[in-house]
UniProtKB/TrEMBL annotation:
Protein name (record): Proteasome subunit beta
Family of this protein: Belongs to the peptidase T1B family.
Subcellular location: Cytoplasm; Nucleus
Keywords (A to Z) from UniProt: Cytoplasm, Nucleus, Proteasome
InterPro entries cross-referenced by the UniProt entry: Proteasome_beta4 (IPR016295), Proteasome_bsu_CS (IPR016050), Proteasome_sua/b (IPR001353), Proteasome_suB-type (IPR023333)
One matching Pfam family: Proteasome
Major location (coarse): cytoplasm
Length: 236
């Protein structure tokens, strides 16, 4: 993001994110890759925008999602859409693979970082091509990493134990979705920038599927909350 300084008349770069998205969790499963994110965008520390779709389809077999500055996410979606649109215009039957999009995003992020105007994003690219699952992470510096699971934001701290205990790369789609839901339950309770409305998307040999947002189930009526967490405890 770039803005013009009214005081100096010079072009300046953004030095910190303004409207930001939260954690992303992505897992491979037996038939493809599934991604989950919440629908909240925060303005600083304020939960300002609560129904934001942050999973984007950039081609018939590629999903893109990120955590970080939302305007940078929107710009990256436009850049990736240009590639897909250009491939369609050539009409030669050649289309970029999910890995091509991941490599492009890594180079774009590295270029922006070298100009001291980085994309403030932790990017996740998921796809399915020629019978192979694809999942990659690209960070703010342009570092590119392919993996069987990816976490960003606070999910990198709170959710890896859940993933390690309950997920494996040959699980079913429903099992992978349930692991992601359990992760967002924890995040909603422990991350002040998390939300209980989440959206899931997955890509398999049939293509891209983006589901409607859903609310994770949470429990607050624990006996300890009702019998001890009250003012009487603190006035004795």
């Amino acid at each position: 993001m770039i803005f013009n300084s009214e005081l100096s008349g010079q072009q300046q770069h953004t030095t910190s994110p303004v409207v930001t998205g939260g954690s992303v969790i992505a897992l491979v499963y037996k038939g493809g890759v599934v991604i989950g994110t919440d629908t909240l965008c925060s303005y600083g520390s304020m939960a300002a925008f609560k129904n934001v779709e942050k999973i984007a389809q950039v081609s018939k077999n590629t999903l893109y999602v990120s955590s970080g500055e939302f305007s940078d996410f929107q710009q990256v979606v436009k850049e990736l859409a240009k590639i897909d649109r250009s491939a369609l215009q050539y009409d030669d039957g050649v289309h970029p693979s999910p890995r091509d999009y991941g490599n492009f995003l890594a180079r774009l992020s590295y270029k922006k970082r070298c100009k001291i105007n980085p994309l403030y994003l932790q990017n996740v690219i998921a796809g399915f091509h020629n019978g192979e699952r694809y999942l990659a992470l690209v960070d703010i510096y342009g570092t590119y990493l392919e993996s069987n699971f990816v976490t960003t934001g606070f999910a990198s701290y709170f959710c890896k134990a859940i993933i390690s205990n309950y997920w494996n790369e040959n699980c079913t789609l429903d099992q992978a979705k349930q692991v992601i839901r359990e992760c967002f339950k924890v995040l909603f309770c422990r991350d002040c920038r998390a939300h209980d409305m989440i959206q899931l998307g997955y890509v398999d040999e049939q293509g891209v599927h983006i589901e409607q947002a859903e609310r994770v189930e949470t429990k607050w009526d624990f006996n300890g909350f009702k019998t001890r967490a009250n003012e009487k405890l603190h006035t004795q």
